[in-house]
Amino acid sequence: MFTPTKRNTARLALVLSAALALAGCTAADAADDAAAAPAAEAVTVTDSWVKAADSGMSAAFGGLTNGGAQDVTVVSATTEASPMLELHETVENETGELIMREIDGGFVIPAGRTLALEPGGSHIMLMDLAHPLEAGEEVTFTLTFSDDSTFEFTAPVKDYSGANENYDRS
Question: How many CA atoms are closer than 13 Å to the CA of 149, on its beta-carbon side?
Fold first, then answer.
């Protein structure tokens, strides 16, 4: 028969405490995972617009705000206005010239922050336009996030004479 001693009781209490702590952590982790909302639910788009263009290339701009507690990553974008879209960034090439190129890994939007998509900076590049984009029209985009959730927004087309960037097509 087992006779409880002060030492055995202390060991038993320690083992039970550890087991409860582990069970509590596992349950909390599972609850956090279950409560994690899709990235698309944390993001809003403000002041969006698209540069008017007759053919070739255009770009979409605006603010992507992450109202969530976790960073989110936009990995792609689609629209019927263009069969080929890329997420672009501005970088300096080896000669010191600023160029636009596809960003590796997508746009990371930090938790509680806004990522500005703007001429001369990060933007959504539309290539091989399906039709002319005229001021006053609207273009609908679908953003896809790293967790495969999606977010749709509509942006007006505006005339804009700036943003004559160079593009790295390597």
Answer: 12
